[in-house]
Structures are given as structure tokens and as C-alpha cells.
Design goal:
Elements lengths: L6 H23 L14 H31 L5
């Protein structure tokens, strides 16, 4: 990930970023009307689907942010 940080600090940084992104994704996904697409929006299956969608979006966004940070720090090796 980031060459300047030791492995433990990289891991902690990744966890913190993931939790921050999860909080933002969970907050923003609450405004989406899933009940329009589900048979039983108050059921357990709907809640599990909501959690899985939030986790999937969190993974995608976190991966992008951490990759972008790594790429931008590696630009110094270009010249």
C-alpha cells in the first residue's frame, strides 16, 4: 500500500479507512428505497441484503481509495 508506513500502520490505516467508508455508505444507503424492489422489506432476508450491499459498496470504494493513494505515492518513482 503506502511505502512510507510499516506494515502494521498500513493495516491500521486500511481498517480506519474501511470503517469510515462503511459509516458513510451505511448512512447514504438509508435514503435508498429498497422496499420498492423487495417482496417483504421488513424481513430478515431484506436486512441481510441491505448489509451485503453496504459491505460490497464499502469494499469497492475502500479499494479504490487505497489503490489511488498507493498510485499517487508511487508517482515519485516515475522520474
Amino acid at each position: 500500500m503506502i511505502d512510507l508506513l510499516p506494515m502494521g500502520q498500513q493495516s491500521l490505516f486500511g481498517i480506519i479507512i474501511s470503517l469510515m467508508v462503511l459509516t458513510i455508505v451505511w448512512w447514504s444507503i438509508q435514503s435508498f428505497k429498497f422496499d420498492l424492489f423487495l417482496k417483504n422489506p421488513d424481513g430478515v432476508k431484506a436486512k441481510v441484503l441491505l448489509v451485503m450491499v453496504a459491505l460490497a459498496l464499502t469494499h469497492i470504494i475502500t479499494r479504490f481509495l487505497l489503490d489511488y493513494l498507493e498510485w499517487s505515492t508511487n508517482l515519485r518513482y516515475l522520474f
